[in-house]
Amino acid sequence: MIIWFVNKEAAPSTEFATHMRTLRQAKFFQDKGYEVKVFCSAVIHNSKIVHKFKGIYQEEIHDDVPLVFVKCPEYGESFVKRVLSFIVFSINMLRIKADKKPDIIVHESKTPFDILCMRLAKKYNARYIVDIEDLWPFEFEQVGVISKNNPILKLFYRLQRYIYSKGEHVVISMEGGQDYVRERKWDKEQGGPIDINRVHYVNNGISLEEFKYNAENYTVYDDELTDKDTFKVIYLGSIRLANNLDQLLDAAKVLQTERNIKFLIFGDGPERAGLEARCEKEHIGNVVFKNKWIELKYVPYVLSHADLHILNYGKNWAPYGGSMNKMMMAFASGKPMVCNADLPYSEINRHNLGIDKVFDNPEEYAQAIKSIYDMPKNEYEAMCNRVKEVAQRYDINYLCERFAEYCEIK
Length: 410
Fold this sequence. Notes:
Elements: E1 2-6, H1 20-31, E2 35-41, E3 57-62, E4 65-70, H2 79-95, E5 104-108, H3 119-124, E6 127-132, H4 138-142, H5 151-166, E7 169-172, H6 177-183, E8 199-201, H7 208-217, H8 223-226, E9 231-236, H9 245-254, E10 261-266, H10 272-281, E11 287-289, H11 299-304, E12 308-311, H12 325-333, E13 337-339, H13 347-350, E14 354-356, H14 362-373, H15 377-392, H16 396-406
Parallel strand pairs: 1-2, 1-5, 2-4, 5-6, 6-7, 7-8, 9-10, 9-12, 10-11, 12-13, 13-14
Antiparallel strand pairs: 3-4
Helix pairs in contact: 9-14, 12-15
């Protein structure tokens, strides 16, 4: 059986890949004996890497998986050019002449810009499975890119409903995926075209085996990471306005009298310079800005040395749940978390893995961090063990088994 995975923004792990779900799915099914191919853009998202070649596509082997790089325009920071790149990718996908026809097409859809990829299933008479990592166009409305009353947005939603209705199965990486469909009255029970029983939740997850291997084999020399006399509160990720790190600095400022608590911030973004300047100006000495970028294989070592992870988000983040890579890596590290968002479908609150709530003031945020620091050793270790137990349900092999079961891939 031949399975095609179509995801414009998939990329090899060595090329700053941010959408590993597709590659991991492909590797899983390849190991099960299926013939797989991953189709992705020759322009690697969130990087300056561009695969150049003659023609419209080129096949290479990466991570032991066949990847087909499809030509499309570079877009830099331009959202409009990125949209155009999706459209050209879809058109070029239809132009590819396959030596062997796929039996199943798994399309990681960015509705509505790659809607033409849906026609691949008809072209090859293949089963069509819609795989969703991002709830476009809802996220455009949520962040204010486009007004909810804009007729273009309404058209986008109609196209999203149409794509979901044409999928033999719709797999969404957020736990609230079925609620998303029901709230829009797209399900058959409310007169819509979508069978809700064919809408499934499969998180992006993480490879626990890979995380453990990397943590043990790719180490970073850093005295502050390995200092056993400090309680290390680690934030690792983008430093943008949406990450609301000013709020974390406010909490750190309250905790300056706690000499053993140190905040280590890894990552980069437009807000970093301003936050560093603020720490210097306000003499916030318990915050240390570390590496702007860390190669992915070294991240598990860094996170494994945290005593507490910070998951910091803006207001109303992920109303249908999330599949955030930062949270998956925190689970894999086996350490507690403090999150400032009170996430819907929160595993942190559901299983007591730390604290997840909206903090009304810096003192409240600081107290949440200090409450983990002040825990008796046996309670802290019990919390860490719960994190490790929950992590098992987010292991990529377990999740790929669920994907195969839900989508009836036998």
